[in-house]
Amino acid sequence: MNSNIDLDRFAVPLADEHRLVYRTAREFAATRLAPQARARDLNARFPLEPLMELGKMGYLGMKVSDADAGPGLDNVAFALVMEALAEGCVSTAVVVASSNLAGKILADHASPAIKERWLAPYLRGELGPASFALTEPDGGSDAAAVRTSARLDGDEWVLNGEKVFITGAIEAGFHLVFARSDGDGKQGLSCFLVERGTPGLTVGREEDKMGQRASGTAPLAFQDCRVPAANLIGERGHGYRIALSNVGPGRVGIAGLSIGIAEAALAAGSSYGRERRAFGRAITDFQNTQFVLADCRTELDAAWLLALRAARLLDQNKPCVAETSMAKLFASEACGRIVDRMVQLHGGYGYTREFDVERLYRDARVTRIYEGTSEIQRILIARQLLAM
Fold it and tell me: If pLDDT is split at 50, 70 and 90, which confidence band does 39 have?
């Protein structure tokens, strides 16, 4: 991992707490995640043990307030942690991202009984990761296109339907599932907590993905799956609002994750360039290599600034739909360009699994898809622009 990231050069005010949380996450990533990242990728091995450790450290519910016995961190801290973890192992980082989303939803919308039964042990690291189950086979980026149904039968909800591409699903202690409880449209969705192992819930085969292969992504199937009526999260019919309540922070988190991948790639490329010799000289002595590295560093710094700006605006409770979309769009697109350049810098070796840039190249691609595609981000940015 790159140990030379100087946060001060971004000229963004950071508290001592931010620096401590970031430093702790980087140390964990360097010692517990990075050494096994390649093996996890090759074997698609879910990082359950490191995630359990992260849970005990408070990193699976970072933004849950101290009123609910959480760390009470802000969005700036969240973005910094996501960057640090992704440098070490992005498969772990993306599970942390989805788990934080689930934890924050419970903190913001669950009943006191649900918080005591589920949120409290979750924050103690006793339940492992959690999953956020919204996406369906025909839904994609359309959160209102949910077809999974929820029917109230006495003191139980009966769920039927299917979810796909659910991060961390194979080992999640519980799933937050969005289902249609009241007719069509955005007002018909509700959110439910479904415990792992509930009869009628089937966790499908883990997806054999291009990248982020250790993230435990799998479909969920519900066939007359009965959950207690008390497991309704928030008000009935408010599921769409709940699902979108953390969209901005989620995009900032993926911006941080994308930056982490790109930082890892740039560090690998810079190191390789100093060692690799061509025509009797290190390839970093050639102007073209220097130009490539300069472009990468410039784009990365720009991505950092956009991500930190968006996080700061979120923490100030200011409107920032466009800013969070810009951060996610630019960071994920820049990540793809930077990793591609570092593969090119490695030459043929960059196309082999012997070097980490090959894995990072595959890991980077999906950042332009999940948490809202690049096309969706552009639509949101343009909409805000044209409304001015």
Answer: very high
Which of these is catalytic: 83, 263, 299, 371?
371
Distance CA 357, CA 360 (A): 5
pTM, rounded to two decimals: 0.96
Cβ distance 254 to 328 under 8 Å?
A: yes
d(CA 55, CA 47): 12
List the one residue out of 323, 352, 341, 133 whose CA is nearest residue 233: 133
- CATH class, domain 7-129, is mainly alpha
Q: Where are the alpha helices (DSSP H) in 47-123?
A: 48-56, 75-88, 90-109, 112-114, 120-123
Determine whether 244 is exposed, middle or buried from the number of CB atoms within 10 Å of its CB (0-12, 13-18, 19+): middle
Residue burial 151-179, b: 16+ Cβ < 10 Å; e: rest: eeeeeebbbbbbbbbbbbbbbbbbbbbbb
Q: Does domain 131-238 have CATH number 2.30.40.10?
A: no
Location of structure tokens 């913001």: 108
Locate the domains of the chain by residue range: 7-129, 131-238, 246-386
Q: How many residues does the chain have?
A: 388
Pick the CATH number of 246-386 from 1.10.760.10, 1.20.140.10, 3.10.180.10, 1.20.1090.10: 1.20.140.10
Q: Write out pLDDT tens, residues 281-320.
A: 999 999 999 999 999 999 999 999 999 999 999 999 999 9
83 is known as an active-site residue: no
DSSP 8-state secondary structure symbol assigned to residue 160: E
> Distances from the Cα of 197 to the Cαs of 71, 157, 176, 226, 308, in angstroms?
29, 16, 14, 11, 39
- φ, ψ for residue 172 (rounded to 5)? -65, 135
Given the DSSP bridges, would you call strands 156-166 and 149-153 parallel, antiparallel or unpaired? antiparallel
State the DSSP H helix or E strand holding residue 144, giving kind and residue range, or none if neither: none
Sign of CA dihedral 251, 255, 261, 265: positive
Asked if residue 196 has pLDDT above 80, the reply is: yes
